């Protein structure tokens, strides 16, 4: 009997890509991939372990799915991802529901792990993360057919004091440019129009393989792949943002005028404790340089509130920074005390209620900013990628180049004159806090 496998993905889009690779390998093995957990004989939970809330979600998901051994067809429950990389011994000891685990650098062995788990061996494949995906391995997309992600590197060497990613994902290692381009060609051949380049630290791409920053060259070469319409940049570490990269984004019509650049904070003392690159002045100068040379660029960032020792004055200054800089998109995280990180040993840890209040306050600041920044699009004609149809409102829903999938705003389109997956021209007539609406231009 052919096994039926369901992969449950938690966490970020980097985890999503790993799940798609496992799906491709499982499909090539001859097993069936199913949509419903209840139909599966094997379930793989690809976990996130980045912050406490993610760990809790991962553990609860594992326990919930384990009940299918009693009520469903489930024969083997396998756990992969960041949680297993960090807590392999604890998971195997304290959760007998688990039939096998695989770390972030070993998931390409998933078929062997499934086979051993079904035999009751409780396999553990968790080594030092050194694996880098090559396009020769199968990958089965789970995103919409017109948009997907390419991982250009794994791991991180920045060692921010709050972050456990180097523990879970290993040292920074770039994929070869040839491998990335070969994958881009494969994806474009399948109908993908939008490629988002992701890594833990995208702007450092190439330094380990080629001895120099190569992201600008990579953006250019991916944009030249036939069938690719948009190339989008995520996780741009601010310390490695070169003039060459800015110019490539500015001058290449296929590179989205969109930059996701996590800053984490604005105040010098906090940035120093975080071990982040540069200081307030450097950040402001970089943003000014980007906006001067890329007119209309959409800037997204993420910020952490409640970092150990963050004073009321520093938080107030962070709010002022957000008001002044006016990011187009912004995500806010409360500081999570991660064991084995330097920040977990810092004094003056803040109470959870203080952190939550600061997160809510900062998001309210951004809500007001977003309403202002969105209005600049009224009257403009934007290219919009149509993603779904809302029959109740009789409108199509899509995104412009200024918004990334899943995390950013949407554009509501009447009379598009096209189909889902098409890129159409839309005249923007209304702006809301995070979304836009307009009419298709025939």
From TrEMBL:
InterPro entries: Elp3/MiaA/NifB-like_rSAM, Methylthiotransferase, Methylthiotransferase_CS, Methylthiotransferase_N, Methylthiotransferase_N_sf, NA-bd_OB-fold, Ribosomal_uS12_MeSTrfase_RimO, rSAM. GO terms for biological process: tRNA methylthiolation. Residues 142-372 form the Radical SAM core domain. Residues 3-119 form the MTTase N-terminal domain. Residues 375-442 form the TRAM domain. Its main location: cytoplasm. NCBIfam families: 30S ribosomal protein S12 methylthiotransferase RimO (TIGR01125), MiaB/RimO family radical SAM methylthiotransferase (TIGR00089). This is Ribosomal protein uS12 methylthiotransferase RimO. It comes from Paenibacillus apis. The gene is rimO.
